[in-house]
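[Discussion] Sanity-checking designs against the backbone

I'm trying to build intuition for which residues belong where. Below is a structure token string of 225 positions. I'd appreciate it if someone posts a full sequence so I can compare it with mine line by line.
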């Protein structure tokens, strides 16, 4: 069709012309809404198709990605063993490992969830990735400073050690920034690689976040000790 129409016909079920619709009503907002509605329907169909699959096929889709958590957990255990002397010298470090990991994992999942929503609604390009990373860095830095100050203050008061408070607070702040950026980057890379980020992003983001968080925590503790 080489002609550019200025109006579209409205035809009844019997084939009778009953009116016309001017093309001016198809604004960017209307077209955008239609596109989002189509994407939502496509996602619903995809979810329903997934639900309708056999137990074995669903297992085959999801289990390989969970192996990243198994590998990440084993790697974290290996890292902890490499810092065994540090933990023996400062046993109190082990008390805050669950807190540091929990905060980093939480902010990584928040970032990953928002990223998946963005990929679904607007997509992601290399031009948009830079501003998105700067925004996520700013937000995660504030979250890290707030959380690190709170937990570091508790550690300082509890053990009467300013070094411990600064180390724990600093580790939380740094790990939360790293975790948030991982939550943005990894789902985006999975999407760019034509993999399903809805299934793969969670395990990969969590496993990577755990490893990075322990590296930050133990190396920062080694500096203080």
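Best answer:
Here's mine. Compare freely.
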């Amino acid at each position: 069709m080489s002609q550019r129409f200025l109006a579209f016909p409205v035809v009844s079920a019997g084939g009778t012309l009953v009116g016309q619709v001017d093309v001016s009503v198809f604004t960017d907002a209307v077209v955008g809404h239609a596109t989002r509605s189509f994407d939502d329907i496509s996602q619903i169909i995809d979810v329903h198709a997934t639900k309708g699959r056999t137990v074995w096929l669903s297992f085959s889709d999801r289990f390989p990605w969970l192996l990243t958590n198994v590998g990440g957990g084993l790697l974290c255990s290996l890292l902890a063993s490499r810092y065994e002397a540090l933990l023996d010298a400062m046993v109190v470090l082990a008390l805050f490992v669950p807190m540091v990991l929990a905060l980093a994992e939480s902010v990584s999942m928040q970032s990953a969830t928002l990223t998946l929503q963005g990929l679904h609604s607007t997509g992601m390009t290399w031009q948009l990735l830079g501003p998105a990373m700067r925004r996520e860095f700013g937000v995660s830095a504030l979250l890290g400073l707030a959380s690190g100050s709170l937990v570091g203050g508790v550690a300082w008061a509890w053990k009467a050690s300013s070094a411990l408070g600064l180390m724990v607070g600093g580790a939380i702040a740094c790990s939360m920034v790293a975790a948030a950026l991982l939550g943005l980057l990894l789902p985006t890379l999975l999407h760019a690689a034509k993999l399903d980020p809805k299934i793969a992003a969670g395990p990969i983001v969590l496993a990577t976040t755990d490893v990075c968080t322990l590296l930050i925590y133990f190396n920062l503790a080694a500096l203080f000790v």
